[in-house]
């Protein structure tokens, strides 16, 4: 009896779950798939990201905590120096 069951090509889902439950799950999956492929999720993500981005510019009210100007920060970046260390050394001079 087990051998005949094992070699059946497909199982009948009607034997395991009610057809109404399977149909409901299929409809929910179709609705979620439509949201993803329809761009609804992408639209939400892009809106959230665009609200957070500043176009590569620092926020207008942001101040550098080291007190260094943009040129000094660029030099620190170029040579791999910590801006805090450079600010401390520049105050000692």
Note down, in words, how this protein is organized.
The model has no long low-confidence stretch (mean pLDDT 75). The protein is mainly α and 93 residues long. It has one domain (2-51, 65-92). It has helices at residues 2-6, 19-37, 40-52, 70-79, 83-92.
In brief:
This protein is mainly α and 93 residues long. 61% of the residues lie in helices and 0% in strands.
Share of helix, binned: 55-70%
The tally of helices reads 5
User: Could you state the order of secondary-structure elements as H and E?
Assistant: HHHHH
Mean pLDDT: 75
For the report, how would you describe the main beta sheet?
Answer: none
Shape from CA axes? rod-shaped
Spatial separation of the terminal alpha carbons? 93 Å
C-alpha Rg (nearest Å)? 31 Å
Q: What's the count of strands?
A: 0
Structural class: mainly alpha
Oligomerization = single chain
Q: What is the percentage of strand-forming residues?
A: under 5%
The number of domains is 1
Give the low-confidence spans.
Answer: none
Topology readout:
Blueprint: H1 2-6, H2 19-37, H3 40-52, H4 70-79, H5 83-92
Jot down its keywords.
93 residues; mainly alpha; 5 helices; 61% helix
């Amino acid at each position: 009896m087990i051998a005949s069951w094992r070699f059946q090509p497909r199982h009948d889902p009607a034997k395991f779950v009610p057809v109404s439950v399977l149909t409901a799950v299929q409809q929910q999956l179709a609705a979620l798939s439509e949201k993803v492929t329809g761009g609804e999720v992408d639209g939400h993500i892009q809106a959230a990201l665009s609200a957070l981005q500043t176009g590569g510019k620092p926020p207008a009210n942001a101040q550098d905590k080291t007190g260094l100007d943009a040129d000094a920060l660029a030099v620190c970046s170029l040579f791999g120096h910590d801006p805090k260390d450079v600010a401390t050394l520049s105050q000692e001079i």
